[in-house]
């Protein structure tokens, strides 16, 4: 049975069938630009286009950059506000003609890392963080997910933390990796103060450049890059779909 994972991001929509035995892609990933504006109709059409590139798919997991409760998207910080209150699961199911599970993007990435990657077998409190257009978060107690935590929106220096420490903030402010690492350090220390985690995993596109910034971050919590790098969201989405 082919299970497809699709990851909706602020800049790209990516998908691939997943080998759930290995925790990797069964076929080469397809990536399309996220439509602008990223309204419901346009994003659903793009997700359907990505899904249409693959044959033999029986189930689909779709990630969304915001809170998802019972298949309904409740927040939309980095996509069009037409997603507020949208029945995402029903919309994707109708467009794809397949059973669909929709979940928060960082939650999906965290599920993948806890199953196959840097969090596998870890006990205590683990926080998975994805740095991209915004900052996504997934919190686990042992291997149990606390869904929809949205820790990228905690207040840091009087504004959303992701405006200070996301990968997009690094580009907007034209920061070098070492400079940006100090912003990330500020953010991670605030998470330590609030949650006292046992492990923090850094994911998103920047995980491929971990050697450029992680050595410049000084926190007391063990800090590791995501083993699945930026593929974790797709893998976690497919895993969630397989378990639904």
Brief characterization of the structure:
The chain is an alpha/beta fold and 244 residues long.
How does this model look, in words?
There is one protein chain. This protein has 244 residues and is α/β, with parallel strands linked by helices. It folds into 2 domains: 2-107 and 232-243, Nucleotidyltransferase, domain 5, CATH 3.30.420; 120-227, ATPase, nucleotide binding domain (Nucleotidyltransferase, domain 5, 2-Layer Sandwich), CATH 3.30.420.40. It is built from 8 helices and 15 strands. The strands form 4 sheets. Strands 1, 2, 3, 4, 5 and 8 form a 6-stranded mixed β-sheet that branches. Strands 11-10-9-14-15 form a 5-stranded mixed β-sheet, with helices on one face. Strands 6-7 form a two-stranded antiparallel ribbon. Strand 9 (125-131) and strand 10 (135-141) form a beta hairpin. Helix 1 (40-51) packs across helix 2 and helix 3 (105-116) crosses helix 8. The mean pLDDT is 97.
């Amino acid at each position: 049975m082919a299970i497809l994972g699709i990851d909706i991001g602020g800049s790209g929509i990516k998908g691939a069938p997943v080998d759930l035995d290995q925790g990797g892609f069964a076929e080469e990933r397809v990536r399309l630009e996220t439509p602008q504006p990223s309204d419901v109709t346009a994003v659903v059409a793009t997700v359907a286009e990505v899904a249409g590139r693959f044959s033999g798919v029986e189930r689909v997991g779709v990630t969304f950059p915001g809170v998802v409760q019972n298949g309904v998207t409740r927040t939309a910080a980095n996509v069009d506000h037409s997603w507020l209150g949208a029945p995402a699961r029903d919309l994707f199911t109708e467009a794809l003609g397949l059973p669909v599970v929709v979940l928060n993007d960082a939650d999906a990435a965290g599920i993948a890392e806890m199953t196959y990657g840097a969090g596998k077998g870890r006990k205590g409190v683990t926080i998975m963080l994805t740095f991209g257009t915004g900052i996504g978060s997934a919190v686990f107690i042992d291997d149990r997910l606390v869904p929809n935590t949205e820790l990228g929106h905690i207040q840091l220096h009087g504004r959303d933390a992701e405006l200070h420490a996301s990968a997009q903030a690094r580009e907007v402010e034209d920061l070098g990796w070492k400079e940006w690492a100090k912003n990330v350090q500020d953010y991670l220390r605030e998470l330590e103060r609030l949650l006292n985690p046992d492990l923090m995993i850094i994911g998103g596109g920047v995980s491929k450049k971990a050697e450029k910034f992680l050595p410049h971050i000084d926190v007391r919590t063990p800090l590791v890059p995501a083993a699945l790098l930026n593929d974790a969201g797709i893998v976690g989405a497919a895993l969630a779909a397989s378990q639904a």
